[in-house]
């Protein structure tokens, strides 16, 4: 051979394809080979050379293996797009599968299995049957894998032709490569079948354990992984298995070592003798540590696995903490994992050494690493009571360096330490306060404010400190606002003097009037009410003793840990997630739709891995002070949390930001409405008054359809209604007309509504807060959900052309999509009618593979337009909805609406 | 099993792409590259070697600036895939002599042929260069090695030492030499990477040696080879058969290549093997037994007023004067407010350069070589833009060092002899037994 392969990439002026065609048909062998190489070169850079199919296939009948391989490579690539032509090659394949040269036989079977064309597959069966019994092991091992290929294309064929049985026979083959491939193929077939196909009996077990010693390193991994599913009958058998697997721990291939570790760990569960277990732990430690001498990529996998192993069997590496000390040149992903394991292995015995390391890491350059090191110190303090004081002194030392992010991180962990050891280390508060003005991260600020509030009675100038934060209250992030609110209340309860009293006015005012954050507002109202009704109760609630937090560095749920340990040496053990959360290979036996699984997989990204515990470690301050009244954190009070009877009379005015004079009097009779309305205020909550209501659209007008039922013992009259500010600015457009309700009677009414009256700022929300009042009862308020489709107007119909034009004119950033995995479209007509009834107008439909794609338009008042694309397979669950709109912030509401509509 | 294998250049170009199962979309290489390039998750800026995007799992390793990547949808063994990627790189290197973008492109037909034999339907078949030789027919086109980056650990021998036959490490295992005859030779390299952490008072906090006995054989006919190690070698820290302190070499743990037979290992510490073609590790070992670190680092920091300080770095080579270390780099992060550094080398210093990397506030001192027993000093005068918060040692350091010391090994593990089964009395192939020590993480805290 002469020259470089790269010359095949050069092109000539005179049309490439005809020239290649000519060369392929030359009588000179060498020239033909060169021509095929050129074709392959063109193919690999993505040029379409499929028109040369016949010419290339003609070169297939050659004794020259190099040329044959090239032709086969070409065939695999183009057979799918040219199935009819691929048939031309079948004869040569079948002939080749009987060639005297074993390499050619194997090559023919290997290639045929890669051509996923039904017609070829039919012809594959006979040669495959022969090759499974071939004299040459190279052919047999290739045929074994080919069975898995065939199963992937046509599982039935494999079972009908008894290939599974042939594979099982190959487990007893005298060639270890063949055994390994047979095991791999069987394991894959089993993975894709619902019924048991490859069950490991004690007989196969012993055969495979024998083959293990002869196998290549890769074969050993296949076999060990297959055997790890075997459950030993008793402790004795488990010990025997372990004994035969243990020598694998000395293997230079890390994959073999980890698979052996997995197998041993699994059998250890069966072993009862503590001596044997202790001895095994001792044997596993050095190989596990040696994995950390491999390339950093492997180290990372090893560390993620070790993380799991030490949670179950901490003794294995209890004395090896030094090997997890970070090296200066470790990649950041290795350092982070090492820190995790150091925390897990930290004990009273080694904590001094560990702290010395952490302290050193905390002064390194990499900011993320430094932060994690500081948190690690805090987690050790929480974990090891006797070392807490030493940990804190290290943290204080770090704070004194005054590196901003170190200080902030330290304050966050110290807050947790205070929670863990209440009334123990408060003497350091003074030091913390020195750094107050340098804090600029929300979590650190919130933590510091929590500390000030919690220990307000011990900090002489707590009011001054908090006051300095109050000035910027409206600009602070929600996390900080919530803490400021709570801390101020604590301060007030502890020091009810004039200063704090004024502060609390400011805070409550800010938090109720100036904010759009429902969490903050609701919490403020709760405080307000508590303080105004029963300050002692407020003390009991706000200053209640908090539950002590504990160390969470072993935070994996035991059942999850069990599952992950069974999956040591698999991806599952790296992500720390069960396989079903990310495995997206579709089982042929179970007919699951692919889209569903993809969607699942995309959510199971690495980023969410639960093992990244640093964040979990520092429970945010909100949770710390929120525990006593978790209910208050619901975005809005549920109907069941009705206000106490002793409510201040004008709270409703406060709540709604309006005064009572704006209330609509109720004095006129009503018209009844037909469909049953959802109950929003149950009788049990409303002292006998039950209110059901729903927004409806009729003839382009929006109504609030309301049903009042009086189940109380007294007549009710003087009904008034008020709507809080909401995203659509919904408000009553006329008076509420409800007559006096005698006990046991009901009245229905249609209240005309207007849009864009009292708009709330902030992100759109479907929440509609309603208050209803009568002359006999306290004010009732309840929540309704605005389903946006009632606003869709009849002028929303668009021409195809203008739809397309609008779609194109909107930037991609205005496109939002959402999947509804649970919804099925069964009848197209019915669905279109249903949508049209709600003014969602059908534009067009197209077919995309098995899926149908529908386009709709819809419009709201003020010209807010939604262009919608629905993708689904008719009759199969799962709808993808993509919309383009000039108002993408409304997308979530739109999706809620469409979900309601599609569910019918 | 894996679905796809591909090799990307540093710029993200597809150099090799092989799809084994057709389960993962074709655009995976671009998805992967974008993800890795703009990685920012969990506060980390470097993508971990394994991650999942939209249900596809991506594995990658970096080899001489190239990204070797595999994808899968199944719950496979990640160590198997990562190890496989390393091995594929090694096999290709065995074949091509040099591994880089250029050589891969020039030999693409051979590379695809190799990949078809190495992996079938996503399952590894073999990564043994020796075995592959019977199934692979394309011949490599060896590219000019002289100006190329070395890849293998053995490539460190190319630096500076004339005794080493520099071309050997970039020689293809399968290609014939010009003239048709292969030179009969075998290389045994004892490569040790040492990690030492000194406390601020110079006391050794941790020390560790990761060693490999690497072999690359160009012997025809694959004769049997016997390697003898130190007789007093012992394995396992709890194993004190040879009394501690008597100079015995004690390894914490070791493992062996599958071709190695250990029949006599317990008896006389000899390894017997028939070396397959290609480069492979005969034995990996790990040692935390105390050893004498080759370098001592002294750091002295004197504050001179509020905005000035002087750093004095002293490096002493504590190995015999017959040995010379080369390509030494000493680094030290300086306080954040450092604006200027004035360096002062010792009088008559040769082959030394200094630099202040302003971007990451780091001092860098490079020395071409250091002869055993010698001592070198650097003075650096720092100027700060702002007063320091207190202790300068908390804001600077630690001092780290990288170096290579040929013909030196810290563990004292030795190949006592290398015996090749004789085919005839005239058969006398070249035997190269070479030692080298490199810094892994060599750090002195201040």
TrEMBL record, chain A:
Residues 601-611 have a biased composition (Low complexity). Coiled coil: none annotated. SUPFAM superfamilies: ARM repeat, Clathrin adaptor appendage domain, Subdomain of clathrin and coatomer appendage domain. It is found in: Cytoplasmic vesicle, Clathrin-coated vesicle membrane; Golgi apparatus, trans-Golgi network. Keywords: Cytoplasmic vesicle, Golgi apparatus, Membrane, Protein transport, Transport. Residues 669-783 form the Clathrin adaptor alpha/beta/gamma-adaptin appendage Ig-like subdomain domain. The lineage of its organism: Eukaryota, Viridiplantae, Streptophyta, Embryophyta, Tracheophyta. GO terms for biological process: intracellular protein transport; vesicle-mediated transport. Subunit of clathrin-associated adaptor protein complex that plays a role in protein sorting in the late-Golgi/trans-Golgi network (TGN) and/or endosomes. The AP complexes mediate both the recruitment of clathrin to membranes and the recognition of sorting signals within the cytosolic tails of transmembrane cargo molecules. The keyword DNA repair does not apply. This is Beta-adaptin-like protein. It is a peripheral membrane protein. GO terms for molecular function: clathrin binding. Pfam families: Adaptin_N, Alpha_adaptinC2, B2-adapt-app_C. One of its GO terms (cellular component) is Golgi apparatus. Residues 792-903 form the Beta-adaptin appendage C-terminal subdomain domain. Adaptor protein complexes are heterotetramers composed of two large adaptins (beta-type subunit and alpha-type or delta-type or epsilon-type or gamma-type subunit), a medium adaptin (mu-type subunit) and a small adaptin (sigma-type subunit). Residues 593-651 are annotated as: Disordered. Belongs to the adaptor complexes large subunit family.
TrEMBL record, chain B:
Residues 183-445 form the MHD domain. Its main location: membrane. The keyword Membrane applies. Belongs to the adaptor complexes medium subunit family. This is AP-4 COMPLEX SUBUNIT MU-LIKE. CDD domains: AP-4_Mu4_Cterm, AP4_Mu_N. GO terms for cellular component: clathrin adaptor complex; endomembrane system. Keywords: Membrane, Protein transport, Transport. It holds the Pfam family Clat_adaptor_s. One of its GO terms (biological process) is vesicle-mediated transport. The keyword Hydrolase does not apply. It is found in: Endomembrane system.
């Amino acid at each position: 051979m002469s020259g470089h392969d790269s010359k095949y990439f050069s092109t000539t002026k005179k049309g490439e394809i005809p020239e290649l065609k000519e060369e392929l048909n030359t009588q000179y062998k060498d020239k033909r080979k060169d021509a095929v190489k050129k074709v392959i070169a063109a193919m690999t850079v993505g040029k379409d050379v499929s028109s040369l199919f016949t010419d290339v296939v003609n070169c297939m009948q050659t004794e020259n293996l190099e040329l044959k391989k090239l032709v086969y490579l070409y065939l695999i690539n183009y057979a799918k797009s040219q199935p009819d032509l691929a048939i031309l090659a079948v004869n040569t394949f079948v002939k080749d599968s009987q060639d005297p040269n074993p390499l050619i036989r194997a090559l023919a079977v290997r290639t045929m299995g890669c051509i996923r064309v039904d017609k070829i597959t039919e012809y594959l069966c006979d040669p495959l049957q022969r090759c499974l019994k071939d004299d040459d092991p190279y052919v047999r091992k290739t045929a074994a894998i080919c069975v898995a290929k065939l199963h992937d294309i046509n599982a039935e064929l494999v079972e009908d032709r008894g290939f599974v049985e042939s594979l099982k026979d190959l487990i007893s083959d005298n060639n270890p490569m063949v055994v390994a491939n047979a095991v791999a193929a069987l394991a894959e077939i089993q993975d894709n079948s619902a019924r048991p196909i490859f069950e490991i009996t004690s007989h196969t077990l012993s055969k495979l354990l024998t083959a293990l010693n002869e196998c290549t390193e890769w074969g050993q991994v296949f076999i060990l992984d297959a055997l790890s599913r075997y459950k030993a009958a008793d402790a004795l058998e488990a010990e025997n298995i372990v004994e035969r697997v243990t020598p694998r721990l000395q293997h230079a291939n890390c994959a073999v070592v980890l698979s052996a570790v997995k197998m041993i760990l699994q059998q250890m569960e069966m072993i009862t003798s503590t001596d044997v277990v202790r001895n095994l732990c001792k044997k596993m430690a050095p190989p596990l540590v040696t994995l950390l001498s491999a390339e950093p990529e492997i180290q990372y996998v090893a560390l993620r696995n070790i993380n799991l192993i030490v949670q179950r069997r901490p003794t294995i590496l209890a004395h090896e903490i030094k090997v997890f000390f970070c090296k200066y040149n470790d990649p950041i992903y290795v350092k982070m994992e090492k820190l995790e394991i150091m925390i897990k292995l930290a004990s009273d015995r080694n904590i001094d050494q560990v702290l010395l390391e952490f302290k050193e890491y905390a002064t390194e350059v990499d900011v993320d690493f430094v932060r994690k090191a500081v948190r690690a110190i805090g987690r050790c303090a929480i974990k090891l009571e006797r070392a807490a004081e030493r940990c804190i002194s290290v943290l204080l030392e770090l704070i004194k360096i005054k590196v901003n992010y170190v200080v902030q991180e330290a304050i966050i962990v110290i807050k947790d330490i205070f929670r863990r050891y209440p009334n123990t280390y408060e003497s350091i508060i003074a030091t913390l306060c020195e750094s107050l003005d340098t804090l600029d991260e929300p979590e650190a600020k919130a933590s510091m404010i929590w500390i000030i509030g919690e220990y307000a009675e011990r900090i002489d100038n707590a009011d001054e400190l908090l006051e300095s934060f109050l000035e910027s209250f409206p600009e602070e992030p929600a996390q900080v606002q919530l803490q400021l609110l709570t801390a101020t209340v604590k301060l007030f309860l502890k020091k009810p003097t004039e200063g704090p009293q004024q502060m609390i006015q400011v805070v409550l005012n800010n938090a109720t009037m100036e904010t759009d954050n429902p969490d903050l507002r609701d919490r403020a109202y709760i405080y307000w009410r508590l303080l105004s009704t029963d300050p002692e109760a407020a003390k009991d609630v706000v200053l209640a003793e908090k539950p002590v937090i504990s160390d969470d560095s072993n935070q994996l749920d035991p059942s999850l840990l069990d599952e992950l340990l069974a999956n040591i040496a698999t991806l599952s053990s790296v992500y720390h997630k069960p396989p079903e959360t990310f495995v997206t290979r579709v089982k042929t036996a179970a007919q699951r739709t692919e889209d569903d699984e993809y969607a699942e997989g995309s959510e199971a990204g690495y980023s969410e891995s639960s093992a990244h515990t640093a964040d979990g470690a520092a429970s945010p301050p909100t949770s710390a002070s929120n525990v006593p009244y978790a209910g208050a954190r619901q975005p809005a009070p549920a109907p069941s949390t009705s206000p106490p009877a002793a409510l201040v009379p004008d709270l409703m005015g406060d709540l709604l930001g309006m005064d009572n004079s704006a209330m609509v009097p109720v004095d006129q009779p009503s018209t009844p409405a037909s469909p049953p309305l959802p109950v929003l205020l149950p009788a049990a909550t409303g002292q006998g008054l039950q209110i059901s209501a729903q927004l409806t659209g009729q003839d382009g007008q929006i109504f609030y359809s309301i049903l009042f039922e009086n189940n109380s013992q007294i007549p009710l009259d003087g009904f008034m209604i008020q709507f809080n500010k909401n995203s659509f600015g919904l408000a009553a457009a006329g008076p509420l007309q409800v007559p006096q309700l005698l006990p046991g009677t009901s009245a229905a009414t249609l209240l005309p509504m207007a849009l864009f009256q009292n708009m709330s700022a902030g992100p759109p929300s479907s929440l509609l807060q309603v208050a209803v009042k009568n002359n006999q009862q306290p004010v009732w308020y309840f929540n309704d959900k605005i389903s946006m489709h009632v606003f869709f107007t009849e002028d929303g119909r668009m021409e195809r052309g203008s739809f397309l034009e609008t779609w194109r004119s909107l930037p991609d950033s205005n496109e939002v999509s959402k999947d509804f995995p649970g919804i099925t479209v069964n009848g197209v007509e019915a669905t279109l009618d249903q949508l049209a009834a709600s003014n969602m107008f059908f534009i067009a439909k197209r077919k995309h593979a098995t899926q149908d794609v529908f386009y709709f338009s819809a419009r709201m008042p003020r010209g807010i337009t939604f262009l919608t694309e629905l993708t689904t397979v008719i009759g199969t669950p799962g709808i993808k909805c993509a919309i383009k709109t000039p108002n993408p912030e409304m997308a979530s509401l739109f999706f809620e609406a469409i979900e309601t509509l599609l569910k019918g | 099993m894996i679905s796809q294998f591909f090799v990307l250049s540093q710029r993200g170009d597809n150099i090799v792409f092989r799809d084994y199962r057709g389960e993962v979309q074709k655009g995976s290489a671009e998805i992967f590259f974008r993800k890795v390039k703009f990685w920012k998750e969990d506060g980390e800026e470097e993508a971990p070697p394994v991650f999942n995007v939209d249900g596809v799992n991506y594995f990658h390793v970096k080899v001489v600036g190239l990204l070797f990547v595999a994808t899968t949808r199944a719950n496979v063994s990640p160590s198997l895939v990562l190890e496989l990627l390393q091995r594929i790189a090694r096999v290709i290197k065995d074949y091509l002599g040099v591994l880089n973008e250029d050589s891969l492109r020039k030999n693409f037909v051979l590379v695809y042929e190799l990949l078809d034999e190495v992996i079938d339907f996503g399952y590894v078949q073999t990564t043994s260069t020796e075995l592959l030789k019977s199934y692979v027919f394309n011949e490599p086109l060896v590219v000019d090695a002289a100006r190329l980056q070395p890849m293998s650990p053995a490539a460190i021998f190319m630096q500076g030492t004339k005794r080493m036959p520099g071309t050997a490490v970039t020689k293809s295992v399968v290609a014939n030499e010009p003239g048709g005859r292969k030179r009969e030779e075998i290389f045994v390299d004892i490569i040790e990477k040492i990690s030492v952490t000194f406390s601020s008072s110079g006391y050794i906090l941790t020390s560790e040696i990761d060693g490999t006995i690497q072999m690359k054989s160009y012997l025809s006919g694959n004769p049997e080879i016997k390697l003898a190690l130190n007789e007093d070698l012992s394995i396992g820290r709890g194993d004190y058969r040879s009394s501690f302190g008597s100079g015995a070499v004690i390894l914490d743990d070791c493992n062996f290549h599958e071709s190695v037979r250990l029949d006599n290992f317990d008896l006389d510490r000899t390894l017997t093997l028939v070396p397959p073609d290609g480069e492979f590790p005969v034995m990996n070992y790990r040692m935390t037994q105390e050893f004498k670190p080759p370098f001592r680092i002294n750091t002295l920091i004197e504050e001179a007023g509020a905005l000035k300080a002087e750093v004095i770095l002293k490096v002493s080579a504590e190995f015999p004067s017959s040995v010379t270390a080369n390509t030494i780099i000493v680094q030290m992060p300086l306080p954040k407010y450092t604006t200027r550094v004035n360096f002062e080398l010792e009088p008559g210093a040769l082959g030394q350069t200094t630099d202040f990397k302003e971007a990451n506030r780091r001092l860098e001192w490079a020395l071409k070589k250091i002869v055993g027993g010698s001592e070198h000093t650097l003075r650096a005068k720092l100027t700060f833009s702002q007063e320091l918060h207190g202790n300068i040692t908390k804001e600077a350091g630690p001092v780290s060092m990288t170096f290579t010391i040929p013909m030196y090994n810290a563990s004292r593990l030795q190949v006592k002899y290398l015996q090749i089964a004789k085919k005839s009395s005239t058969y006398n192939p070249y035997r190269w037994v070479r030692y080298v020590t490199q810094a892994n993480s060599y750090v002195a805290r201040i």
